[in-house]
Amino acid sequence: MATTANQFSVTGENTKENLYMNAQGDVVLEKLCLNAQGQIGALEAPKLERKLNEALDRKPDILILDMSMVNFLSSVGIRVLLGTYKKAMNAGRKFRIACPSENVINVLGMVALDEMLLEE
């Protein structure tokens, strides 16, 4: 079975960490960003969940998932996103989706999660 070019991946090894500092140079927030691309269906969702849990274990103030390159989001993928949101909230942290593709915006809007999950 041949693999396609639109495979799902989360770039856990290439994460970008940004420290936001106030005028006195004190660290205010730590933001951890992950990128996803391709499809997030039943086969890909467990890998996404593992990567998001690993990222939450690093205890960033804000966990951001860039979904600009995601072309399909299933109900299982939605469950993973919602579960990550709840875990982050329970730990006093934030989880947001940044740069969602049109497909992601449409799916999250249909299930009324767009306002809760999309970055402001």
Notes on the protein architecture:
The structure is a single chain. This protein has 120 residues and is α/β, with parallel strands linked by helices. Helices cover 35% and strands 32% of the residues. Strands 1, 2, 3, 4 and 5 form a 5-stranded mixed beta sheet that branches. Mean pLDDT is 81; it is low at 1-22. The protein has helices spanning 45-57, 75-90, 102-110, 114-117, and strands at 9-10, 16-21, 27-40, 62-73, 94-98. It has a single domain, classed as Transcription Regulator spoIIAA. α1 (45-57) runs parallel beside α2 (75-90).
Structural class: alpha/beta
Beta-strand residue fraction: 25-35%
Quickly name the level 1 CATH class: Alpha Beta
What is the count of distinct domains? 1
Low-confidence stretches: 1-22
What are the key terms here?
120 residues; alpha/beta; 4 helices; 32% strand; Transcription Regulator spoIIAA; five-stranded mixed β-sheet; single chain
Break the fold down into its secondary structure elements and pairings.
Elements: E1 9-10, E2 16-21, E3 27-40, H1 45-57, E4 62-73, H2 75-90, E5 94-98, H3 102-110, H4 114-117
Parallel strand pairs: 3-4, 4-5
Antiparallel strand pairs: 1-3, 2-3
Helix pairs in contact: 1-2
